[in-house]
Write a structure and sequence with these properties.
By secondary structure, the protein is of the alpha+beta class. The chain has one domain: Nucleoside Triphosphate Pyrophosphohydrolase, CATH 3.90.79. Helices cover 17% and strands 40% of the residues. It has 3 helices and 8 strands; from the N terminus they run E-E-E-E-E-H-E-E-E-H-H. A 4-stranded mixed sheet has the order 5-1-7-6, with helices on both faces. The protein is globular. The relative contact order is 0.24. This is Phosphatase NudJ. Its EC number is 3.6.1.-. GO terms for molecular function: nucleoside diphosphate phosphatase activity; ribonucleoside triphosphate phosphatase activity; thiamine diphosphate phosphatase activity.
Amino acid sequence: MGRMQNRWKPNVTVAAVIEHGGRFLLVEEDTADGIRYNTPAGHLDPGEDPIQACRRETLEETAHDFTPTALVGIYLNRFTSSRSGADVTYLRFAFRGELGQLHTDRPLDTGILRAVWMSLDEVRACHALHRSPMVLHCIEDYLAGQQYPLALIHADPSIYHQPQPSLAA
């Protein structure tokens, strides 16, 4: 079989579904498409597993510590980028967990205007402004009690180290 010229690689992201007293923690973002709402979310970076990425992204976007306790689901969506016209696919790992300390002196990530608590009705009312169609889907799955053990996610220790060049000739 010949070498594939353009191997398809979805963008891997993580998201935190955080609820307290019937309200959900979302972030208001300034994007190329205008103001959008999202659960705390972002890309998986090299050298981290999805659980670590979710902790990091939640801290960066909300200034809160977050400890994932269960996987809500794994979501796949596809769209055409309004900026580049590119065909983009996201593979999202959504987690539920425990919200920790708020670091009031910590600046929020670039593009994040604020972290905001919203009721389910408010989240549904701004559906057209969601960063992804998966925002509401993840929240509804959370409310339905969907959760899976974190042990479903396995990360080989090799991901935490820079790969070494092969010595094979």
